[in-house]
Amino acid sequence: MNVIVNLILVVQMLAALVMIVLILIQHGKGADMGAAFGSGSSGSLFGASGSANFLSRTTAVLASVFLLATLALAHFGNSRPAGAGSVLESPAAAAPAASASAPASAAATPASGAAQIPTK
């Protein structure tokens, strides 16, 4: 089960990183390739409007992969055995056991950083 969750987490992180790069590569609606490189030619690697279609479709596919990975992680995170309890309960359950094993004399003495007021 941990292998599946780790695999989904890696897919989600890779999808997020590639999606960030693709969004940063895309030009705005008013920007064109000619203004960016100094000439008025519209010939680019993907054609006149091919890069916008390719990048936007790839971004949409990666957004879908990211959403599905997020839903899968939420499902696996919520499907615990009935007696397991919450993730937040496990550190709280360990804290009283640690304080119960401390000696009683340590609780009675003041903290070393506390200011002691002299009595007259």
From TrEMBL:
> Per its UniProt entry, which superkingdom is the organism in?
Bacteria
What Pfam families does the record tag this protein with?
A: SecG (PF03840)
Q: Which UniProt keywords apply?
A: Cell membrane, Membrane, Protein transport, Translocation, Transmembrane, Transmembrane helix, Transport
What is the designated name of this protein?
A: Protein-export membrane protein SecG
Location within or outside the cell? Cell membrane
Regarding the membrane, this protein is recorded as: Multi-pass membrane protein
- UniProt family annotation: Belongs to the SecG family.
State which residue ranges cross the membrane: 7-25, 54-74
Q: Per its record, what are the GO molecular function terms?
A: protein-transporting ATPase activity
Q: Which GO terms describe its biological process?
A: intracellular protein transmembrane transport; protein secretion; protein transport by the Sec complex
Predominant subcellular localization, coarse grouping: membrane
Name the GO cellular-component terms.
plasma membrane
